[in-house]
């Protein structure tokens, strides 16, 4: 096994050398291009909440949206006190959503992911303003997720797993899962930056073969070379040619701010620029605001940070604690920025901001009294 690991690590090292020799793409995106990207993606109009739980004892989080059979499909995760499960919703217009039910739920057996299954559909077309269809590989639809066997909010040892289905991903059914996690913090090739626990992942197809691999996973994980349990969350990269066997790419994280959280990367491509949307929490030091921002890249590996205004930040009664965890797309000339809204009472749901004024939502979080009645 150790010889196989060494061989795979050598293969990735050779790929990195070939990558650096063959690709003459700029490693830094200029300020002019960064400003152009910001003007294209900004969403100054907050529409409000579009999806809330039936009770304030539940927390809705992390939207992922794709197109299937002339419907918009959203997956999201729900925390109920025990752990995360993955749910499905659909819409005709990106504004009005109908929840269908669970597609990954708690296990009845002692699986490694028995109490946590937070899923994120993979291989969605990421061309800005494109069709956002979800694609198959090997006649299957795919979804990465973080799982674990501990109960509670992101408690215990969390790892990244892979789920799949041969059925229509826009319909309600249980997705199958690989038997074992594909990335863990105790892998032989675990790095200093992911040797504690792992969180959200997002998988795209490397259509231009920029990395030398067919598929790229961006994930955030906590780790530290001295004290893993107190490390920061950083965004890193793994690669695969078959969606099943994954290896870390490089020896350092792509996004590292040393303190707090840099997490939940989602990729879009605007012309020849890849845009990584992500959220920030608890940094720079002294700031407590949690908000969405972005990086840009020409090669999927070297990323330039946007230093201008936040894309989304707390401002309204429904998101006055956190406004973070993005899913963003452009459709028929309007930019839709879906995000996780958390108020100071701890209510958590999905909100929407847009590039054009489309009105205002009348959806509100359920009060404690309404929750108890239901």
Quick tags:
374 residues, mainly beta, Tachylectin-2, Chain A, four-stranded antiparallel β-sheet, globular
As laid out across the biggest beta sheet, the strand order is 1-20-19-18
Count of helix runs? 3
In terms of DSSP E residues, the strand content is 35-45%
At the fold tier of CATH, the topology name is: Tachylectin-2, Chain A
Query: Rg from C-alpha positions?
Result: 20 Å
Helix content: 10-25%
Domain count: 1
What structural class should be given to the helix and strand makeup? mainly beta
- Average pLDDT, rounded to a whole number, is 91
Instruction: Please give the CATH architecture.
Output: 5 Propeller
The count of DSSP E runs of length 2 or more, i.e. the number of strands, is: 20
Name the shape in a single word: globular
Low-confidence stretches: 1-8, 16-22
Q: What separation lies between the terminal Cα atoms?
A: 54 Å
Main pleated-sheet profile: 4 strands, antiparallel
User: Which sequence of SSEs, written as H and E, runs from N to C?
Assistant: HHEEEEEEEEEEEEEEEEEEEEH
Tell me the name of the CATH homologous superfamily.
Glycosyl hydrolase domain, family 43
**CATH classification class:** Mainly Beta
């Amino acid at each position: 096994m150790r010889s196989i690991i060494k061989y795979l690590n050598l293969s990735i090292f050779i790929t990195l050398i070939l990558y650096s020799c063959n690709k003459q793409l700029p490693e830094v995106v200029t300020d002019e291009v960064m400003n152009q990207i910001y003007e294209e993606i900004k969403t100054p109009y907050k529409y409000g909440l579009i999806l809330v739980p039936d009770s304030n004892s539940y927390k809705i989080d992390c939207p992922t949206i794709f197109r299937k059979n002339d419907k918009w499909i959203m997956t999201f995760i729900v925390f109920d006190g025990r752990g995360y499960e993955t749910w499905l919703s659909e819409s005709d217009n990106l504004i009005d959503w109908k929840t269908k039910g669970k597609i990954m739920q708690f296990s009845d057996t002692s699986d490694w992911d028995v109490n946590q299954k937070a899923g994120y559909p993979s291989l969605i077309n990421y061309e800005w303003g494109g069709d956002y269809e979800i694609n198959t590989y090997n006649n299957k639809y795919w979804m990465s997720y973080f799982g674990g066997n501990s109960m509670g909010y992101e408690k215990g040892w969390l790892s990244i797993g892979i789920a799949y289905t041969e059925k229509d991903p826009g319909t309600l059914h249980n997705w199958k899962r690989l038997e074992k996690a594909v990335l863990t913090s105790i892998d032989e090739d675990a790095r200093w930056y992911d040797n504690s626990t792992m969180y959200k992942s997002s998988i795209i197809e490397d259509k231009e073969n920029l990395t030398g691999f067919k598929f790229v996973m961006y994930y955030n994980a906590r780790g530290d070379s001295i004290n893993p349990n107190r490390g920061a969350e950083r965004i890193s990269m793994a690669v695969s040619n078959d969606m099943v066997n994954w290896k870390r790419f490089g020896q350092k994280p792509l996004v590292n701010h040393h303190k707090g959280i840099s997490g939940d990367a989602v990729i879009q491509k605007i012309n020849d620029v890849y845009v990584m949307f992500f959220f920030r929490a608890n940094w720079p030091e002294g700031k407590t605001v949690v908000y969405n921002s972005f990086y840009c890249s020409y090669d999927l590996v070297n990323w330039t940070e946007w230093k201008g205004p936040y894309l989304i930040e707390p401002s309204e009664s429904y998101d006055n604690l956190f406004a973070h965890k993005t899913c963003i797309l452009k459709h028929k000339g309007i930019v839709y920025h879906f995000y996780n809204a958390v108020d100071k009472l701890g209510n958590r749901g999905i909100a929407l901001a847009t590039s054009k004024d489309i009105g205002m939502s009348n959806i509100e979080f359920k009060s404690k009294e309404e929750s108890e009645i239901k």
